[in-house]
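Record pair follows.
FIRST:
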Amino acid sequence: MKAGTYHFHCTDGEHAVLDREGRYLRARNDLQAEAARAARAIMDRVAGRLDWSAWIVDVHDAEGRRALTLDFEAAAVAQQAA
């Protein structure tokens, strides 16, 4: 897919952290790595340990179409492997 702006919203179904500005990516291949970074940023900002098992990063393109969903646990694994 072409370059564009993507929004990396994070939620557990009850709480949400919305990405209103979005991030410009040169290639869709970068979505998973950027979603993992978004999840890690949320986990790093929250004091204490929460149960992240219900949290996901829900990625949408500029038109609002879902491009990727990544759960926080997979994001943590991906981030550690990087």
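SECOND:
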Amino acid sequence: MCHPPVQFRHFIEMAVRPAVTIQIVPNRVGAHPALTGAAFVILDFPSPDPSLVYLATATDSLWLEKPEEYQRYTLIYSQEQASSALSPDDSVHYLAAMVDQLKR
């Protein structure tokens, strides 16, 4: 198991890559639409491969492939990104502050 500061530093390093965007939804936001279910990852692939959603639960994992399922999770993600998440720059600063805090 990785130590959180090591993971956070890795996220900070990855954030400079052009294909990587990190946005944090801080705890202070409270309840938000993305908390209504399991953690999810949206996977987009070049055409003709379909985009899909991966859900991880405590006991199982699911792959959602139907366009309406993908659209639902894309909407949830877009709402979070626009209304609750920190900007990419602020998210990196947030992670750096967490690393400093956890070092103490």
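COMMENT: The chain has three helices and three strands.
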